[in-house]
């Protein structure tokens, strides 16, 4: 029974981690692939993009930026791609065009402001680190990123306010219902195991009296 409970707890933890969706941004294909592998191994759902522009586009912020700069009509809600939930954004600092710091500022000034942002860099520059932390970054990681670095992210993920699309809400509700069913079955098995023990004892006592 203990093994069954441990297996259930492990499954629940993995399922919880898999619900966390990380947006990884890096212009280096090698670093991007490494980050994707580390996040996948850690049981996170990951989406990788190669630039700050692509990240803004994925978050639905690129059209807003262009509209503010050039006063062009934005896409209608019906024609915009549906944005999936994002629980954390991890971005390289030094990228052409929109840098990691630029992306950080854009995110913190938008409806995604409550999503934790982690900045990475291969250069240990104190002034750069301080600027990002003061700008709202949760962590500043030095490359190459390791599994131990990613373990620091879990607390930020747990504290994040999740942004859902309608389909994500349905999926979340479905997962919650499954968890309720699983917990109900586990508790039922516990009660059966507890109630069967006295019955077995009574049977043994009865056999002794008959003998």
What does this entry look like structurally?
Helix content is 58%, strand content 11%. The protein is α/β, with parallel strands linked by helices and 211 residues long. The protein has a 5-stranded parallel β-sheet, with helices on both faces. The longest helix has 45 residues, at 166-210. The radius of gyration is 24 Å and the shape is globular. Residues 69-81 and 162-167 have low confidence and may be disordered.
What is the topology?
Layout: H1 2-19, E1 21-25, H2 29-41, E2 45-49, H3 52-59, H4 62-70, E3 88-92, H5 100-108, E4 117-121, H6 126-134, E5 139-142, H7 147-151, H8 153-159, H9 166-210
Q: List segments where confidence is low: pLDDT < 50 over at least 5 consecutive residues.
A: 69-81, 162-167
N-end to C-end Cα span: 34 Å
- Major β-sheet strand ordering: 2-1-3-4-5
Describe the main β-sheet briefly.
5 strands, parallel
Q: What is the approximate shape?
A: globular
The count of helical stretches stands at 9
Query: What is the percentage of strand-forming residues?
Result: 5-15%
**Global Rg:** 24 Å
User: What is the N-to-C order of secondary-structure elements (H for helix, E for strand)?
Assistant: HEHEHHEHEHEHHH
Mean pLDDT: 77
Number of strands: 5
Coarse structural class: alpha/beta
Helix content: 55-70%
Overview in brief:
The protein has 211 residues and is of the alpha/beta class.
List descriptors.
211 residues, alpha/beta, 5-stranded parallel beta sheet
């Amino acid at each position: 029974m203990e093994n069954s409970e441990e297996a259930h707890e492990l499954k629940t933890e993995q399922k919880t981690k898999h619900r966390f969706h990380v947006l990884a941004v890096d212009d280096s294909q090698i670093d991007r692939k490494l980050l994707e592998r580390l996040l996948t191994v850690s049981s996170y759902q990951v989406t990788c993009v190669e630039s700050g522009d692509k990240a803004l586009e994925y978050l639905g912020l690129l059209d807003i930026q262009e509209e503010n700069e050039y006063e062009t009509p934005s896409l209608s809600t019906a024609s915009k791609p549906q944005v999936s939930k994002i629980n954390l954004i991890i971005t390289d600092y030094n990228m052409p065009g929109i840098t990691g710091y630029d992306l950080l500022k854009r995110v913190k000034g938008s409806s995604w402001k409550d999503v934790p942002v982690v900045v990475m860099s291969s250069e240990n520059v104190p002034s750069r680190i301080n600027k990002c932390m003061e700008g709202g970054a949760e962590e500043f990681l030095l490359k190459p990123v390791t599994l131990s670095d990613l373990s620091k992210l879990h607390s930020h993920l747990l504290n994040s306010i999740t942004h859902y699309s309608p389909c994500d809400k349905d999926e979340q509700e479905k997962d919650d219902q499954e968890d309720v069913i699983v917990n109900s079955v586990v508790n039922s098995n516990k009660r059966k195991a507890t109630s069967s023990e006295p019955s077995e004892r009574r049977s043994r006592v009865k056999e002794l009296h008959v003998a």
